[in-house]
Amino acid sequence: MTARILSGKEFAARIKADAKAEAEKLREETGVMPGLAVVIVGEDPASQVYVRNKHKACEELGLHNVSVEMPETTTREELFAKIDELNADPKIHGILVQLPLPKALQSAEAEVLERIDPNKDVDGFHPVNVGRLSNGAGSLVPCTPAGCIRMLELADIPMDGAKAVVIGRSNIVGKPMFNLLLQHNATVTVAHSHTKNLAEITKQADILVAAVGKPGFVTADMVKPGAAVIDVGINRIAPKKLVGDVDFDGVSEVAGAITPVPGGVGLLTVAMLMQNVVTAAKLQLKK
Ligand SMILES: NC(=O)C1=CN([C@@H]2O[C@H](COP(=O)(O)OP(=O)(O)OC[C@H]3O[C@@H](n4cnc5c(N)ncnc54)[C@H](OP(=O)(O)O)[C@@H]3O)[C@@H](O)[C@H]2O)C=CC1
Ligand SMILES: Nc1nc(=O)c2c([nH]1)NC[C@@H]1CN(c3ccc(C(=O)N[C@@H](CCC(=O)O)C(=O)O)cc3)C=[N+]21
Ligand SMILES: [Mg+2]
């Protein structure tokens, strides 16, 4: 058996087309064009690629977008002041502070995320949005998990009653993925570095999500025949070679469906960010 390849490009195009139509309708009805500010502190090369992709997507949809580049030496107070300024800027509906922050600011990460107006928090990382998601009333939901769910829906992969296993429990991927799958009536297990007998658990999954950060971590023997395997991992193993957390060649012999890396979940993340910018603009009009 060879798995169906779930093309991020195709699904991302559909998500962006929907967001674009919604943005155009909003502009016609209210004169408001949704705007995104991406704040990048320091010069992490990986972050710069993602930031470029986000701006390209904004251009494609005609969204207002600004890039705020701050030096590695930025202080907590300076970053707060910038966030306060963007919170107050009526042209900016979405604010994203690129993570990871430089070492010196890492201990302030939670405070930085809490400084963002929850209605402008297009990453969905603010505790208010984390709580809304957990309560089942999330409107700004973290882009990567939201993109994975939208893809499962568009690909007609049933979540209702399915057994789902998420490997990874980070605040930005694993935990929100758990909440979303649960809301879609999957029976969800979250595995992490302390999990025992991981392969036994993953082998039960109809939907297996890998968000570990280790190249080729999920191998064919860990996968139930016919399962949908979603590879969130982005691992740069050489300057121009990107791989996921899933051993693609081996697993695609066993799985029913699989996402490639690159060209998979990363593209959905960017597409879902565009949707969140439009959603955020609407939330602000309601205030
Ligand atoms: N495609 C996209 O758009 C995005 C991709 N990513 C990528 O996804 C991956 C995960 O990111 P992120 O969630 O931030 O990563 P983190 O490093 O924050 O979390 C990794 C998780 O994997 C778990 N883990 C580590 N080793 C094992 C193991 N041996 N067995 C089981 N679980 C293990 C950790 O467990 P523990 O908690 O116990 O330490 C942790 O929960 C990365 O490759 C990242 O680059 C991230 C965001 C967006
Ligand atoms: N505040 C914050 N929000 C994030 O959403 C966030 C972040 N910080 N820090 C880093 C991670 C990672 N991330 C990706 C975005 C796009 C691609 C992407 O476009 N990937 C393409 C191209 C990748 C490439 O060519 O390098 C692909 O997989 O095909 C990947 C990963 C967002 N993240
Ligand atoms: Mg992390």
UniProtKB/TrEMBL annotation:
Residues in Tetrahydrofolate dehydrogenase/cyclohydrolase NAD(P)-binding domain copies: 142-284
Residues annotated for NADP(+) binding in this entry: G168, R169, S170, I234
Start and end residues of each Tetrahydrofolate dehydrogenase/cyclohydrolase catalytic domain: 6-123
Catalytic activity: (6R)-5,10-methylene-5,6,7,8-tetrahydrofolate + NADP(+) = (6R)-5,10-methenyltetrahydrofolate + NADPH; (6R)-5,10-methenyltetrahydrofolate + H2O = (6R)-10-formyltetrahydrofolate + H(+)
SUPFAM superfamilies given in the database record: Aminoacid dehydrogenase-like, N-terminal domain, NAD(P)-binding Rossmann-fold domains
Pathway membership: One-carbon metabolism; tetrahydrofolate interconversion
Annotated Gene3D superfamilies: Leucine Dehydrogenase, chain A, domain 1 (3.40.50.10860), NAD(P)-binding Rossmann-like Domain (3.40.50.720)
EC identifiers of the protein: 1.5.1.5, 3.5.4.9
Gene Ontology annotations of biological process type: L-histidine biosynthetic process; methionine biosynthetic process; purine nucleotide biosynthetic process; tetrahydrofolate interconversion
The keyword Metal-binding appears for this protein: no
GO CC list: cytosol
Keywords: Amino-acid biosynthesis, Histidine biosynthesis, Hydrolase, Methionine biosynthesis, Multifunctional enzyme, NADP, One-carbon metabolism, Oxidoreductase, Purine biosynthesis
GO MF entries: methenyltetrahydrofolate cyclohydrolase activity; methylenetetrahydrofolate dehydrogenase (NADP+) activity
Chain's role: Catalyzes the oxidation of 5,10-methylenetetrahydrofolate to 5,10-methenyltetrahydrofolate and then the hydrolysis of 5,10-methenyltetrahydrofolate to 10-formyltetrahydrofolate.
Oligomeric and partner information: Homodimer.
Family under the similarity heading: Belongs to the tetrahydrofolate dehydrogenase/cyclohydrolase family.
Name of protein: Bifunctional protein FolD
Species name: Schwartzia succinivorans DSM 10502
